[in-house]
Design a protein that fits this description.
Elements lengths: L1 H16 L4 H15 L3 H5 L2 E3 L11 H7 L4 E8 L2 E6 L6 E3 L5 E3 L12 E5 L2 E3 L4 E2 L5 H5 L7 E5 L5 E2 L13 E4 L2 E2 L2
Parallel strand pairs: 1-2, 1-6, 6-9, 7-10, 9-11
Antiparallel strand pairs: 2-3, 4-5, 7-8, 11-12
């Protein structure tokens, strides 16, 4: 039952994304990330886990590029059914990896306790901080390994719902933000 609810919600969100132009989504992304960079937790952070966005996610490429010289920016890399993390050192370190996502090359970053801020993508988030991902469980496995990270889920406002199906292993976000501001 819950799997079907999640599947249905993912489909609804994919359809809704198609109703917005690339320019609209870029404007929403910029508005959202301008707010995130003013967040006290982000300002105080030293080692941040971001992500290199797919075309239908909050667009983070410019944000990653803006901050990698002043903060240690880590990006996830898909390895089988888990995410490993690598240091982003500029566009030259990227190669196309799983799902067409640009991923940094180099050694895996293993000092996970140093990560103090994390931006987490999602298909949807709710008012309780629950996250609906794409269904592969990558972040469900990664987030419990980041004991000191402050986790902020980001999505477009039309992706945010009052309540989404959640399971016991789903990791709640500390906050959720959209282009309209803090959602929870």
């Amino acid at each position: 039952m819950m799997k079907e609810q999640k599947k249905r919600l993912r489909k609804e969100i994919r359809e809704e994304k198609k109703r917005h132009s690339a320019d609209e989504l870029m404007a929403y992304s910029s508005a959202l990330l301008e707010q995130v960079e003013k967040h006290p937790r982000f300002i105080a952070s030293h080692t941040v886990l971001l992500y290199h966005s797919l075309c239908d996610e909050v667009q983070t490429h410019a944000f990653v590029e803006k901050w990698y010289k002043t903060k240690k920016v880590l990006l996830p890399v898909v390895r089988g059914d888990i995410l490993v993390l690598r240091h982003y050192t500029g566009k030259d370190c990227l190669k196309v990896g799983a799902f067409g996502i640009e991923e940094p090359e180099g050694e895996n970053f293993t000092r996970l306790h140093e990560i103090d801020f994390c931006l987490v993508p999602g298909m949807s988030f709710d008012r309780q901080g629950n996250r609906l991902g794409r269904g592969k469980g990558y972040y469900d496995k990664l987030l419990p390994q980041l004991p000191h990270a402050y986790n902020i889920g980001i999505c477009y406002r039309f992706q945010a719902h009052e309540e989404i199906p959640a399971e016991p292993f789903d990791r709640k976000m500390d906050e959720v933000w959209t282009e309209e501001g803090r959602w929870c």
